[in-house]
Amino acid sequence: MAQVIVLFRSPTSPPTEDEYHKELSMQGLAPFSIPVLSFKFDNQEELSQKLQDPNRYGVRDNLGLQCTGDGAGSAEALVPFILQSYTPDSKPLLFPCGNLRREAIPTAMAKAGIGLDSIHVYCTCADPNVKHLLDELMKKQGVPSYAVFFSPSGVNFTQDILSGSEEWDKVKLVAIGKTTADTMKNKGWKVCAVSEQPNAHCLAKCVVQAYDGDQ
Which residue, 14, 107, 148, 164, shows the most beta carbons closer than 10 Å to its own? Predict the structure, then answer.
């Protein structure tokens, strides 16, 4: 029977194939995704006004067209992508952000002398259905062999649900990225593997390596 691996993230909506499920299934695992985050949007009118005047910002050529650095995986890793393209002589960068934003990008831009126009556009909240979905999964599939956390917020919002459960003491915990791993370790959780990049292939690779290391 395939080992169950629960991913604390929103699954890809059909008809698009879920790359995480695909890669993990190819490794003989049974993946299940449970949404752990929900979002409340703020200041949409102000953001819309700013986007109507893109010439004020250094990102005008990319609005709605393409992304650079979207695979960076963390704010710290994204900074070099920004610094490669912008200088103190550039127009300021529009920085839509959430209530849980880290200071890595604002601090780096300030040190580099690059203007940053920050606007709070969303709040990250816990998905109200996490506990119910997890309970239903465990009733049908049993205790998972692995659990993967994709963000510090996902760790924080599941802490009360998972802490104190003897069943979860046996689950191997995996992190997407160093920042998430550090958050888990700070809570006293044992991290058995860390995916170097936030993509399905790297996650599957690190889970397989963790499994092989237990044999």
Answer: 148
Nearest to 93 by CA among 70, 139, 126, 62: 62
pLDDT at 62: 54
The reply to whether 135 and 31 lie within a common domain is yes
Determine the residue type at 16. Answer: T
The DSSP H or E segment spanning 152 is: helix 152-162
**Contact present, 36 and 130 (Cβ < 8 Å):** yes
Clarify whether residues 46 and 31 are in a common domain: no
Residue with tokens 């650079």: 68
The label of the residue with tokens 């580099």 reads: 112
Is-contact 34 8, C-beta < 8 A?
A: yes
Helix (H, G, I), strand (E, B) or coil at 2: coil
Quote the tokens at residue 56.
Answer: 């004020």
Distance CA 181, CA 190 (A): 9
How many domains are there within the chain?
2
Residue 129's pLDDT is 94
Would you say how long the chain is, in residues? Answer: 215
| Token digits of residue 167 | 């069943």
Q: How far apart are CA 49 and CA 53, in angstroms?
A: 7
Q: Give me the pLDDT at residue 214, please.
A: 62
Please check whether residue 194 is in contact with residue 73, taking contact to mean a CB–CB distance below 8 angstroms: no
Residue 44 pLDDT greater than 70, yes or no: yes
CA distance 56 to 92: 7
3-class DSSP state for residue 68?
coil
